[in-house]
């Protein structure tokens, strides 16, 4: 049973997916990543990110020297595969949003990977939440404010946890300071996968 924790407006459904549910989604993600392989994104300033990325859905979030944006194709030219039904089911259960997600960003964290504090603000409609699903190794999730700086809070996200960023949390800064590589047995090679579901248009 999931336990709901509210922290700085972020709603954390701890233990949302049981082990079987996590394994099913990992199997679906293997199909997604066969069709749209993980790649290493580059920030607009030319810095290679430490996470590897891909997407499913009508749009994928991409970054390169041309900037942050949504694109309807993988950087290698193929269309993004559909968002797996089991992932859509999570959105329908927790998002409290009449629209369906148009993007499922897949972030893969290997040993030493992290994600700096940022806002998710490349979407057109901020009344729709961002829903994040964590799989595999634990990740230290940092939650900040709408403006840069100020106090932040942190929580370790474990495999199967779901975070809803809605309302006052929708535009708050967030990031992942580090992962505990090898802390989970879900992914045979270790690492952490985070899915973020967004309505884009
Ligand atoms: C993100 O904000 O894109 C990822 C968050 C996470 O990995 O938990
Ligand atoms: Mn984000």
Topology (SSEs and partners):
Elements: E1 3-7, E2 10-14, H1 19-35, E3 52-57, E4 60-64, E5 67-71, H2 85-94, E6 103-109, E7 115-118, E8 130-136, E9 139-143, E10 153-157, E11 162-165, E12 174-179, E13 192-198
Antiparallel strand pairs: 1-2, 2-11, 3-6, 4-5, 6-13, 7-12, 8-11, 8-13, 9-10, 9-12
Bound molecules: succinic acid and manganese (II) ion.
Key traits:
201 residues, 2 helices, 13 strands, binds succinic acid, binds manganese (II) ion, mainly beta, globular
What is the H level of CATH, i.e. the homologous superfamily? Alpha-ketoglutarate-dependent dioxygenase AlkB-like
| Architecture (CATH level 2) name | Sandwich
State the total count of DSSP E strands: 13
Rg measurement, Å: 15 Å
Q: How would you briefly describe this protein structure?
A:
The protein is mostly beta strands.
């Amino acid at each position: 049973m999931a336990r709901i924790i509210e922290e700085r407006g972020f709603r954390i459904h701890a233990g949302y997916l049981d082990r079987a549910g996590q394994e099913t989604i990992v199997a679906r993600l293997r199909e997604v990543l066969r069709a749209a392989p993980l790649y290493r994104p580059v920030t607009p300033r030319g810095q290679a990110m430490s996470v590897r990325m891909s997407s499913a859905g009508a749009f994928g979030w991409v970054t390169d020297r041309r900037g942050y944006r949504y694109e309807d194709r993988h950087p290698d030219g193929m269309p993004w595969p559909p968002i797996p039904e089991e992932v859509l089911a999570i959105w329908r259960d927790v998002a409290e949003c009449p629209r369906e997600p148009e993007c499922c960003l897949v972030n893969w964290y290997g040993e030493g990977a992290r994600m700096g504090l940022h806002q998710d603000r490349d979407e057109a409609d901020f009344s729709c939440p961002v829903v994040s699903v964590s799989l595999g190794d634990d990740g230290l999730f940092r939650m900040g404010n709408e403006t840069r700086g100020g106090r932040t809070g942190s929580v370790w996200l474990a495999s199967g946890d779901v975070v809803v960023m809605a309302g006052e949390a929708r535009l708050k800064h967030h990031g992942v300071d580090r992962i505990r590589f090898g802390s989970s047995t879900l992914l045979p090679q270790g690492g952490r996968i985070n899915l973020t579901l967004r309505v884009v248009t």
